[in-house]
């Protein structure tokens, strides 16, 4: 064999070795990455919380109606006002936040055994099973049910907004709570996944809705309400007259008390969907799932003290700058906006108020898992 052939053969062998090593390294890195991802999504078991002696006893309905026997078995159907029903969505990207919400609710209420959670999640059976296992493992005594949400119907109604996270179909599941939850659930407190409570949720659930209000939420009438809708909306008399004889104010949909009986009777899901369908034909608003709620309910909601939604702690939607608390007492801290406390804590760039979220973090770190 000539010297040139030997050199060529050796070059080929070295190239193959390099490719093999690179492939092996990439595969090892990918495997390590998958293992790390699996680790960081494991959560510790939360402590068990018990009712105080003065808590009323729950009365479970003998029949939930509409073929919802499973909900009776899962102890999610009750009669009377003793139970506090809480509705939330479960999304993989925000699951760490959801776990913190649950812990904060249970820790600060006098009657934790009377709190029943209703979770809405993407309808994949694998996803539902995984989430059910995760919740049950961290909260073995929690009364809860997970309801599958088929997002294909709402996906075609979503218009792009200023932040991609606002366009997630599950972000619109709150529009369909009256359809997803069993009929026996008549009143529910809806909570976002980026907040914690530092007060008894029963106080929020007892918010009076008056004779005809469908929902209650803290209102912020100093906010510039007109900015939530486009010039196209305000220049059309037929559209802008929507707010005639109303005094509309901004309210945040991340914390609401909803009368589901009145919602169902008034078919408010259809009303919201109709505005979303119009938005697809002519752009009348800019910001995700909030404007349809404003169009239907603003000016006709029951008031809630601002202490129950100290919102905006995540900063603005573009830069996620740190925010301070609003003046006054605090019962609920809400990291609405771009910045989430767990992301900033992991990046070692926390805002001062993120330290108030950290005690509710149930994340099991890789160091604990490897021990």
From TrEMBL:
Protein's cellular compartments: Endomembrane system
Record's GO cellular component terms: Golgi apparatus
Membrane topology: Single-pass type II membrane protein
A Pfam match: Glyco_transf_8
The keyword Nucleotide-binding is assigned to this record: no
SUPFAM superfamilies, per database record: Nucleotide-diphospho-sugar transferases
Name of the protein in question: Hexosyltransferase
Species assigned in the record: Oldenlandia corymbosa var. corymbosa
């Amino acid at each position: 064999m000539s010297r040139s052939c030997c050199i060529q053969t050796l070059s080929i062998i070295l190239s193959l070795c390099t490719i093999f090593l690179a492939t092996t390294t990439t595969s090892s890195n990918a495997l390590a990455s998958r293992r790390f991802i699996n680790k960081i999504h494991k959560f510790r078991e939360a402590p068990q919380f018990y009712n105080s002696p003065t808590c009323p006893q729950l009365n479970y309905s003998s029949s939930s109606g509409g073929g919802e026997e499973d909900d009776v078995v899962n102890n999610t159907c009750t009669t009377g006002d003793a139970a506090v029903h809480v509705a939330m969505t479960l999304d993989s990207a925000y699951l760490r936040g959801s776990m913190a919400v649950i812990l904060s609710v249970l820790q600060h209420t006098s009657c934790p055994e009377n709190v029943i959670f209703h979770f809405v999640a993407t309808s994949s059976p694998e996803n539902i099973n995984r989430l059910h296992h995760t919740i049950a493992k961290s909260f073995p005594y929690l009364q809860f049910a997970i309801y599958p949400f088929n997002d294909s119907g709402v996906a075609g109604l979503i218009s792009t907004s200023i932040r991609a996270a606002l366009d997630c179909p599950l972000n619109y599941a709150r529009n369909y709570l009256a359809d997803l939850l069993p009929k026996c659930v008549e009143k529910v407190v809806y909570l976002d996944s980026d907040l914690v409570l530092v007060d008894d949720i029963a106080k929020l659930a007892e918010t009076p809705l008056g004779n005809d209000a469908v929902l209650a939420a803290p209102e912020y009438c100093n906010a510039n309400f007109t900015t939530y809708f486009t010039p196209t909306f305000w220049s059309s008399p037929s559209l802008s007259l929507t707010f005639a004889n109303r005094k509309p104010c901004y309210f945040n949909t991340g914390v609401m008390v909803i009368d589901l009986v009145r919602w169902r009777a008034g078919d408010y899901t259809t009303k919201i969907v109709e505005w979303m369908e119009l938005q697809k034909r002519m752009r009348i608003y800019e910001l995700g799932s909030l404007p349809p709620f404003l169009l239907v309910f603003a000016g006709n909601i029951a008031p809630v003290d601002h202490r129950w939604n100290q919102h905006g702690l995540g900063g603005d939607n573009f830069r996620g700058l740190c925010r301070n608390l609003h003046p006054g007492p605090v019962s609920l801290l809400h990291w609405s906006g771009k910045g989430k406390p767990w992301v900033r804590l992991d990046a070692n760039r926390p805002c001062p108020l993120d330290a108030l979220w950290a005690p509710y973090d149930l994340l099991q770190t890789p160091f604990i898992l490897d021990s």
